[in-house]
Design brief:
seven-stranded parallel sheet; single chain; two-stranded antiparallel sheet; TIM Barrel; alpha/beta
């Protein structure tokens, strides 16, 4: 164990490089749905939480539908804690509707608000705390636009879906460039479609990976903390772990593979260990600390950062956030 106290950046960089750390890095993220329609309020709250709980990096938390709002779905916005926006009506009703999805500038509408979020966080933290912007795979955004019909359209009208994916990809690349200029440390790339029970490997390559990899190309060599998030159960872990990010996050506690099994599938830094669904917000602080210790025992101290498999519940007691952080002092 390193005896010299590290800065947050030094600690995270060491974990990514599988080097010794003074303590294992941690970050816990959740939606701030009562604040996320105003980028300045969201920035201030995320920075406050990172300092309060002594997190090692900030995952920016734009609302989950920011990447589709400007293409016309009808959304219900609650602006209440614990009630994130939902799709009230999808934007895509017919195959022809995909053709109306046109490329947008990365500073347009909801996209631009998230660039403003990054700028505010940079202004507040400087080089004190690394922070990464959330981006979605183009196919994930397409699903938020059209719902489950994407799987039908893959078979029956692939050209129309490909046209939309192209526009979504170009828009996301523009958004990436704006965030690079805003000073992000990297990106949190999230895919919700790398699920073997929903899509074949061949279709995933054509409609998923082909577009995903263009996003990574847009920031290659310009960032240092790039997390790949695989959402869901029965995920194509090995395939997505081949993406060029240097850290991987997934539902290791309830979706699998477990931390120890993941070590045999990827050489990337692992980010996880917290069961946000069944443990973090439902047990006492002693159980949280034992839960963290168990994760470290499975994964080992090097090449590891502690975090949730997905967003934490906003109703989680603050004591449990402190407990997760403090558990790492003696591991």
């Amino acid at each position: 164990m390193s005896k010299t106290r590290m800065t947050r950046t030094e600690r995270v960089r060491a974990a990514l490089a599988k080097q010794d750390v003074d303590r294992i890095p941690i970050s816990i993220w959740l939606h701030y749905s009562h604040l996320d329609q105003d980028p300045r309020s969201l920035a201030e709250e995320q920075v406050r939480a990172a300092r309060k709980f002594d997190y090692d990096f900030i995952k920016l938390m734009p609302f989950g539908l920011y990447s589709v709002q400007d293409w016309g779905p009808r959304l219900k916005m609650f602006c209440q804690k614990g009630h994130p926006p939902i799709v009230d009506r999808f934007a895509i009703d017919t195959p022809e509707d995909w053709l109306a999805v046109k490329e947008l500038p990365g500073t347009y509408g909801a996209w631009g608000s998230q660039v403003t979020l990054a700028k505010h966080v940079r202004r507040l933290v400087g080089d004190e705390i690394p922070f990464i912007q959330t981006i979605f795979s183009p196919l994930t955004s397409a699903r938020k636009l059209g719902g489950e019909r994407i799987f039908e359209d893959m078979k029956n009208c692939p050209e129309a879906l490909h046209a939309a994916l192209e526009a979504i990809t170009r828009t996301t690349v523009s958004f990436i460039r704006e965030n690079l200029a805003a000073g992000v440390s990297g990106f949190f790339f999230a895919t919700q479609n790398a699920v073997s029970t929903e899509i074949s490997p061949e279709a995933y390559e054509e409609f998923g990976a082909a577009y995903d990899l263009r996003l990574f190309e847009a920031f290659a060599g310009q960032t240092w903390l790039d997390v790949i998030h695989i959402h869901g159960e029965n995920v194509m872990f090995k395939r997505v772990a081949e993406y060029p990010g240097n850290c991987i996050n997934w539902h290791d506690r309830w979706g699998g593979p477990s931390m120890d099994k993941a070590r045999a599938l990827t050489d990337k830094c692992l980010l996880g260990g917290l069961n946000e669904r069944d443990v973090l917000h439902t047990v006492d602080t002693d159980a949280v600390q034992a839960h963290v210790a168990e994760a470290v025992a499975m994964a080992g101290r090097t090449g590891l950062m502690i975090g949730p498999g997905c967003v934490a519940d906003p109703a989680t007691p603050e004591a449990n956030f402190f407990a997760a952080r403090m558990a790492l002092e003696n591991l």
